Amino acid sequence: MRSLSLAVVGHVNHGKTALVRALTGMETDRLKEEIARGLSITLGFAWRDYPATGVDFIDAPGHEDFIRAMVMGATGARAALLVVSATEGFGRQTHEHLRIAGLLGLRAGIVAVTKADLLPDGSWPAVRARIAAELDGTFLAAEPVVLCSSVTGDGLDGLHVQLQALAVRSPAPDRLPGAYLPLDRVFSVAGAGTVATGTLQGGVLTTGQDAVLEPSGRSTSLRQVQIHGRAVEHGPPGGRVAVGLRGVSADEIEAGEVLCAPGAYQASLLVDVEVSLAPTSARPLKSTDEVRVMWGARQDIGKARLIGANMIVPGERGLAQLRFSAPVVAYAGQRGILRRPSPAETIGGVVVLDPVAPRLRGRVDARRCLLDAVIAQNLDQIAAELAHRDGGILSIGEAARLSRRSPAEVRDHLGETFDRLDDDVLATGAGVVRARQAYLVRVAEAHRDAPTRAWTPVNAIRAGLARTASRDLVAHVEKRLAAAGEIRLQGAQVALQGHEPLAALPPAAVARLRRIEAALRDGGMTPPDPAALADPGADDAALVALLIESGRLVQLRNVALRQTLTFHVEAFDAALEALRAAFPPPTEFTTGEARAALGTSRKFIVPALEFLDARGGTVRRGDIRQVVGA
Question: Cα torsion at 129, 130, 134, 135 (round to 10°)?
């Protein structure tokens, strides 16, 4: 049975704790100081199970000194029970609690007007009118108002009916990447070990599953999951849960940590938010202002870097990057309260847009456009902004995080307009076309600049394209061009399929190239040094390089003599046939015997035999070789 988490809020001494006790039979004040003073200091918890649903009552302290506890209780709740004294009406904290609840995203609730037994006869219509005027413009303006008494029980039956109806009509819990449990209480129980409680959001917690505590990163597992004091196999989001933890002591868990599904959330020092500055804020919010952020069960001090504005004035909205000195954990769409550390005041609220934001650098126009799309929750525009930022590609994981959708939903939605490069990377169709055309143009330009070169370095092509297209997109396009036969790849070199460098040579250069090739072919296994050929020309080195790139010449290194030797490729074919004739397989031969059979010298034989080994024509075993049979 899914429970409704209900934040019980209102001014101090208006009867919140007494009302919860009357509704549930449970006492939420646990501390001696709370009992002695008759004043709630920490959050109190109680519940009531109805036939079709359960309600978790989160009793928040009403005193202004305990705003943090009130925010902790309202965070994760799906509705509010605003308690107003019939005799006192709205108090200062009634207004502040109502404003905070609205900033935290609550949109449904009930107004319980308590102490009806102290109200003079006939005064209820006037009291109700005053309360309606106070509620005007708030999220509770159109919600039920119930007059009741925790002392006499008057009105409680009607309040029970409204609570059951509220559980049905309240918004469903936020869709998140996985279970997200802000821990508001952590303690040890004899025989049970470490126990933590919170209002579960996002996903199911299952007994025995692995989990992680963020932002500390400690791993743990769930010994047990409890709801309303009963052990359960699965704890659904939306209500209060208690979990028994393995592998971690209560002393090791920091206040406000979050129990998460492994891999679903990531701690960060930078969080991009939309700020709603309250009209009552004493002054504007400016860049570098220090702020206290209350979200979940934690509070963190950070500095605000405004995005696209010099300041945010009271009553207005704006974008900011919150920068923290220690990692924090949040989720896209999470709401929080913004306060100034000194003098302490609530100045507004924030909605998390990107919980793992990149550091802002230079002009921020592109970042502002992306965050505007996140606010509108326009996935197409989010994808377009990400692709523009990243050179035509986007990360499915990042798009899912910013759009608050699952990766599968992102793939399905963008599948018709984006090409899938791998499990996490998409590319725009137009971006693929542009990158493909740019790749071919770059290679063609390289051929034009060096027409006598058969190949061009592929890294130079990739580096030139990196200014306008992502590395992943270039690799994707290159692979597709090679598969389609439009380019040829050979090691670290690339060429257009139709590139023929010989066609670009003048007749005199062609004639010289043919003489060089003939001389090396005729040299066989004792080739001449190209640099020592008769009538060397100024372009001989380029012509030899062209013959090597085209695969007609092979350069080998004699390491012992520190010499580079140049052979014609046909010389190796002839040498292999000569060795096969002299040493029919499986006849073995030594290096010296091969040198004699081929009529060459030690200078040439060692690198030549190593080349034949590498090509698979011969096989070496220690100091002897043999020709491969076929």
Answer: -30
- pLDDT at residue 186 greater than cutoff 60: yes
Three-class SS state of 571: helix
**Strands, E, within 122-267: which ranges?**
145-147, 180-182, 185-189, 193-199, 205-206, 210-214, 218-227, 230-232, 234-235, 240-246, 258-260
Provide the Cα torsion 159, 160, 166, 167; round to 10°: 160
Residues 453-484 have pLDDT tens digits of 888 999 999 999 988 889 999 999 999 999 99
**β pairing state of 193-199 and 335-340:** unpaired
Has residue 65 got a pLDDT over 70? no
- Look at residues 172, 185, 205, 14 and name the one whose alpha carbon lies nearest to residue 95: 14
Domain residue limits, the chain: 3-169, 180-260, 268-354, 365-423, 431-502, 506-627
Fold equal for 431-502 and 506-627: yes
pTM for the structure as a whole: 0.78
Q: Which pLDDT score, from 0 to 100, does residue 296 have?
A: 86
Q: Residues 302-336: pLDDT tens digits?
A: 999 999 999 999 999 999 999 999 999 999 999 99
Residues 253, 326 contacting (CB under 8 angstroms): no
Q: Which of 3.40.50, 1.10.10, 1.25.40, 2.60.120 would CATH assign to domain 431-502?
A: 1.10.10
Dihedral in degrees, nearest 10, Cα atoms 243, 244, 247, 250: 90
Identify which of 273, 259, 265 has the alpha carbon closest to the alpha carbon of residue 331: 265
